[in-house]
Amino acid sequence: MRLRLLAFLLVAVLLLFAACAKKGNSPASASSGAPSSDGSVTLGDGRISFIPPPNLKQLTKEQIAASKFNKDKPPDYLFANDSKTVTVGVVLNFIDLKPEELEDYLYANHRLLSMAIADVQFVTEDIVDINNRKWAHFEVMSDAPDVALHNHQYTTSFNGGALVFGFNSTVQEYEQYKDALLKSAQSIVVKD
């Protein structure tokens, strides 16, 4: 479990660095189906949904692959503004994670982020409830090679694996997008 958790956390760290990377391709409309009347999109096998922040569009698999994301395990879904400075990345079931392991996940993720990202600032680390589901939540600020980032990462157990939502913005744009990012996070619905 520990090795798989570390491998997963490495992907999470890469999400933090790569989520706000600029790339020339413009995002496409949602490819997994049109948003519903309330703006929510359905992910995976249909049991995961959320309302992306306004002005963020879903990137295609090709656009994700062409971005600066880890080529071995890019996010399964990525929503971005036109400049890709504000993103929501979603990763499904990369490692095993049981609900009772969320506290261990918090501890391990803190250690890994502290080692992997110089001068990472932890704003919040806690277990939160979103729509009657427990999530490990990190709010961190860090410097990527070319930009300062502000990130909220939410991880829960789903189908015996980890489901991760990363809400990312440049520090410069964070105050402008903060409410929309947090409102979007609170809209996540996961059905077992």
Explain what you see.
- This protein has helices at residues 2-18, 61-66, 102-116, 171-186; strands at residues 41-43, 48-50, 57-58, 77-80, 86-96, 121-129, 134-143, 148-158, 161-170, 189-190.
- The chain has four helices and ten strands, in the order αβββαββαββββαβ.
- It has 192 residues and is an alpha+beta fold.
- The strands form two sheets. The chain has a seven-stranded antiparallel sheet with strand order 3-4-5-9-8-7-6. Strands 1-2-10 form a three-stranded antiparallel sheet.
- The longest helix has 17 residues, at 2-18.
- It has a single domain, classed as Protein Transport Mog1p, Chain A (3-Layer(aba) Sandwich).
Question: Can you give me a brief rundown of this structure?
Answer:
The protein is of the alpha+beta class and 192 residues long. The chain has a single domain (2-190), classed as 3-Layer(aba) Sandwich (Protein Transport Mog1p, Chain A). The chain is 28% helix and 34% strand.
Set out the fold topology.
Layout: H1 2-18, E1 41-43, E2 48-50, E3 57-58, H2 61-66, E4 77-80, E5 86-96, H3 102-116, E6 121-129, E7 134-143, E8 148-158, E9 161-170, H4 171-186, E10 189-190
Antiparallel strand pairs: 1-2, 2-10, 3-4, 4-5, 5-9, 6-7, 7-8, 8-9
